[in-house]
Amino acid sequence: MSEIQQQQHSAAVVHSEPLLRVENLKVHFPVNEGIFMPRQVAAIKAVDGISLEINAGETFSIVGESGCGKSTTALALLRMQALTAGSIFFKGEDISHYQGSELRAIRHRIQMIYQDPYSSLDPRMKVLDLIGEPLVVHSLTANKEQYIKRVQELMDMVGLRPEMIDRYPHEFSGGQRQRIGIARALALSPELLICDEPVSALDVSIQAQVVNLLMDLQQRLGLTYLFIAHDLSVVRHISTRVAVMYLGKIVEVASRDELFDNPRHPYTKALLNAVPLPDPELEAAREDNLIVGEVPSARNPPSGCRFHPRCDQAMAQCSSREPQLVALTESRQVSCHLFN
Amino acid sequence: MSFRTDSGSVQAVDSVSLTVDAGETLAIVGESGSGKSVTALSILRLLADTASIDRGTIHFEGQNLAELSESDIRAIRGNRIAMIFQEPMSSLNPVLTIGAQVAEPIRIHRGLNKKAARQQVVELLRRVSIPDAELRLHDYPHHFSGGMRQRVMIAMALACEPNLIIADEPTTALDVTVQAQILALLKNVTKAERSGLILITHDLGVVARYADKVAVMYAGRIVELASARDLYKNPQHPYTQGLMASIPGLGGAPGSRLSSIAGQPPNLDNLPPGCAFAPRCQYARECCSESKPALQSVAENHQRACFGYE
Hints:
Chain A is an alpha/beta fold. Chain A is built from 11 helices and 12 strands. Chain A has an 8-stranded mixed beta sheet, sandwiched between helices. A 4-stranded antiparallel beta sheet of chain A has the order 2-1-4-5.
């Protein structure tokens, strides 16, 4: 694709400012050696130059295997992880260097739901305070009565009976605990909700209840989701657009149907192929085309395209030159030399 | 099969009957607490002292494993029946080399010395596609990635050419691309050796890809038993139907509401007197809360435990 076409494409996207825009985000973790005089000998490049845009009202998903940098990206967006480089724009406002009260004001609008409802709730706190704590931190309650009323409202919103307000987390099942986590995240009426593997710790039948709840809340409250998951069937169900990450880089971004019906990047294809489908007949008809090897270490990633040692279509230039993320169509970007 | 606890005896597995033939893969599926792992562990009598097998027999090559002495069952464990566990990091010994650990079953059951065992270990590691097998014998588990460790576990399981392999969530801790490699490996070696495989999982996709036969468990009982094809095409028990409908992708178009099973799985120390699924079942009738339905044939090679809802 020529530079002019790329410019035209980016011009088409700019006309309405997305809710969240990330430019060239990098998060590196230093590796130090030496006990008395530690010095940095290397860096783990957990997130290494990603750019993405999330539009208001959509569900944007990031998928990838463990160690690809998806959770680090989430933490960096909330500014809970120091950025090595790059900028984050929330509604056009550069929040990447915010501190103190400015940062707190942004966290008011971006909230997070965590993966494990067993370890993310303080076992000594009652539901009332688990859900209401953000209201206290941000001084949003006038009096106790109003506080309790707001928490009951939130409980009702996520399908918990308001009578359970004085109970402790151990009295709840996994699915109910995840509802508490969701209510807590909603307490400040955020615009963007970052969901880091919100259903992967739950059983299938309970998972469906929580997925339904997330979709209902999005409709009712007009929420925008950044959804991080490794379970592709849930991602396919809930997403508007999907980004695939591999070793700290985005390899493909596309609308849900484009990505799942017609994956272009060899890694996206391999990933989709590795997921077993819950249908024996489809499975029997499928060609056995398994990807070889495992994800290499982010401390010493392969040269050129990071996927080339496992790629069955690798060419000579793949090991020397790093591909750039370029637009293939209006709604799809791929980072691969096959499409350059 | 029950556990003694502070609040009395808990029946974790109740009247489970299963068969596995040579070369066949049986999947046991169910949600957490359904008794699938306990069923597997009780086959090899690997349960804690608080557990007891109250009734029932486990026939394996003409022997009843439930009645064997401790030394007789030890001669079978890792030899005729091998087990692969979920967490390859915690099931390998961190202070022994990979070579020593894979050699252990061969040395114990076959009485080979170190040198003779070594050659076999290299052969086994090659079979599970570990590169540079000879060099890696001297490595410790922490030198290996999760997928590689699980390959080592499979090599150990294969060491004595067992007739039955029990794999308890063998890939739950692994990434999808590695999961696919490990399951394909497991399936291929068991087919080639004509050994039976019991695959315990909660992932209905894994079941569809690898199982020949499926047992669905709920609250310690088998509620449905069928060939994988029949089970997915025509699920007969309301719980199985609910489970299938709640999987995104099977349950409807993207973005639509997923159907879910209302309520929570029951607590095992407080099971309802009748069918354990009745409180969550949309078809429940009076008889469902009075007695437990037995597993009965509804079609050829297809059984369910339900009083019916037509």
